[in-house]
Write a structure and sequence with these properties.
The protein is built from four helices and six strands, in the order H-H-H-H-E-E-E-E-E-E. It is α+β, with helices and mostly antiparallel strands.
């Protein structure tokens, strides 16, 4: 693509195909969609075991959001942790999954929104919301 067509593509939000970058670009595209979907569920009530579209538990929200974005995830937070490509906190980007640990046990998951915040379904009596990450006992995973 020439300079003019590349600028035109950028102006209309299209993407250029770069050899070798397709899988990373694909992952980023799905992650961005999943993040938007999770954010669109703001205020939906928490319900243990719920996978949407109107009620969610933590892993139900991530499963639902990525499924709508075209990616399949397993059901629980621990299974999702085992299915993602683990990345460092310095490599995290919006749309990555954030896993909360107690010892070796993964007990919670959310979708990284940037600036140290996640979209998640916190607990019984709460709703899907954006919240600051409250602990250092987290790890990050990228959905492939």
């Amino acid at each position: 693509a020439g300079t003019a067509s590349a600028l035109t593509l950028a102006a209309v939000g299209a993407s250029l195909v770069v050899p070798g970058a397709a899988s990373e670009a694909d992952a980023a595209g799905h992650a961005t969609k999943a993040l938007r979907i999770a954010a669109s569920k703001k205020g939906s009530p928490y319900q243990w075991g719920a996978i949407g579209p109107n009620r969610f538990d933590c892993s139900g929200l991530t499963l639902y959001s990525f499924k709508k974005a075209g990616k399949k995830l397993p059901r629980t937070a621990a299974q999702q942790y085992n299915k993602t490509r683990h990345i460092s906190s310095g490599s995290r980007r919006a749309g990555d999954l954030v896993f909360f640990h107690s010892g070796g046990y993964v007990y919670h998951v959310g979708i990284y929104a940037g600036k140290g915040k996640i979209w998640h379904a916190p607990k019984t009596g709460d709703v899907v919301r954006l919240q600051k990450i409250w602990t250092r006992s987290v790890s990050y995973g990228r959905v492939r």
